[in-house]
Amino acid sequence: MSASHIELLTNARNFSVNHLTFNTICSDIDAQGILEAHAARGAMYDSNERYPAPLCHPGTRQIILGRITIWYHGRQRGMKKSIMWVHAPAGYGKSATAQTVAEDLEKRFQELGFNPLGATFFFWRGSPERSNPTRFVITLAYQLAMSIPELSPHIEDAVKRHRTVLSKTMEAQLEKLIIEPFRSLDNLEEMPNRLVIIDGLDECINSDEEHRGERQYAEGQERVQVRVLGLIHKLQSHNFPLSFLILSRPEPWIKQHVETRPWKDITETEDLYLLEDHVKDVETFVRAELERIASAMNDDLGESEEQWPGESRVRRLLRQSDGHMLYASVVMKHIEDPFGNPKRLLGDILDRDYSSLVSHVVDPQSFSTLHKLYMQILRACPERVRPGMVEVLQEMLNVESRGLLYRMTPAKALDSLDRLSHRESGSAMRTLRGLHALLHLSNTPSDSFFVHRSIVEFLTTPELALEFTLKQEFSRKKMIFNGLDYISSVTPLKPGDQDLLAMGVEFGFGSWAKSDESMTETENRARLEKLLSIDLAFCIVGTLSASGSTVYAGEVRHQKPTMIQSILRTYKEFKRPGDWHGLTELAVKGRHHIELSISESCVQLLSQGAMVSGLGWFVGSYMDMVDWKDSRVVDALATMRSKHRASFDAIKRSLTTWADLSEDSWKVYNLLED
């Protein structure tokens, strides 16, 4: 035998031995144990780390639970949409909904003969392993191997054959640990559908980047959350018997991604905030919890206290909760303190203002859940946008306190704030991009920018908000001058400018009854001088002309232009110029300037025979203020009667719709008529 033949035989024998050794080693590997060691076990629905996990209180969240059930059973029958996205602001029961669905499905194991719950992953910002997506695919694979017996050997084989897969990219892990094992199955069409629940996607922040710096993870969380969505989309594209329930806050980047073409046809979207009757759900929860606490009190004391807490206290607590389940839950936990008196603790909650409550009355730990949640969301915003974010939030508080949200939607208010504050269009909305979980920013009506009043109270309490504390007074002064600047430069209104005008006028013509005590004398002087520089007559004529021509029928009685109301109110408030300490002479000039401007605009519009909405009300209101002593306006009315009879008759008809004019109005009009 030649040397070459001997070498070949030796190599063959060594290969055979090594191959046998490799197979022996692979067969001895505990693949399931390896997966378990690398999985985020705390992210599973029944993990000890999450105990006690939040659940929907009996009788609450019935609509969303019903819709999820219908959608999932529809998937069993082959319905097309394999993904459901449920979104809501912070504290409105998303995690409780996810947990309730998971537990309800798990209970049906025996009834169905298979486990309908495929896998769960509950992201959480406060946990290194649950906030980091690198364990996401491994955790799903580990659970799918347990919930789908047919799949288990194929996943285990993948771990044995691809020893380094656990350190590969998530995309590679998905391919080797889930997609290829599913492809190895022969009976996919006959396999029942399993539900995969992913809760708190917005809490996936890539904690590896967090350790490298706050700015990096704040800006990187958007990318990593979209990356997780990409993994889910890729997995569902293979039409495996899997459905995916995703729950998150309505972050703009998540919403934008889910609304793209590849997602629309396969995704059912549910807005939990709009879907449920949150006030009713909170009432159900609060009444049941208070009854339970009262019963425990009676047992401890051995006496009956049927009157506590009483309907009035319950109603007050419900008003404070305002449909915010997390707030109500925090209050219940606080008053159930085993070392405290529930009566006194509930009374403190109801009778103290928030800053006093959290500073002096309530154990700081009681509201720590809310405060940590708010702070986490705020600090997740990039550092470079925070100064502008605080500035916009301060402006929003001022807009809300002036009641302007009753006249415009939050989105339109933000657009007007940008223009009023000389910012690029859309700046405010971009600055608040990371705060959609706390704010109402849509184009639908809302009486507040903030999801719950506790957010405002948190932001205005320095001990809690720290660097995010809102200083409303500083912002208010700035907006007063911005409003005056806008009014001074306003030209005849364009369509769509009414909201901006209303905002500019509301701040520019705010309280003028006396000097603003929050301002220095120099600032008050500047405010008066700015008022004197404005061509108010031009503004009034432009505003009324922008209302459009109209015949003065009954419906016009509700069309009181905002600017005109504010100017008339300001004129009334200038009756005591002496309240402008040290600036009396300038205040007298301000009042005279407004009076001349109103008179001039009345004369101009009446002489032209203008038929514009609100003119009759404006003229009548002003003449009532001066007791009909302005002969120029009376003469203009007479001229209008003789030269523009139709306009005069229209004004007279409109006057009959105004109940707030004095009898003098009727006398003058009757005289003119005669």
TrEMBL record:
- Name any one Pfam family assigned in the record: NPHP3_N
All copies of the Nephrocystin 3-like N-terminal domain together span: 78-249
**What UniProt keywords apply to this chain's record, in alphabetical order?**
Repeat
Q: For this UniProt entry, which segments traverse the membrane? A: none
Note the SUPFAM superfamilies from the entry. P-loop containing nucleoside triphosphate hydrolases (SSF52540)
Which domain of life does the protein's organism represent? Eukaryota
What this protein is called in its record is: Nephrocystin 3-like N-terminal domain-containing protein
Q: Which organism is it from?
A: Candolleomyces eurysporus
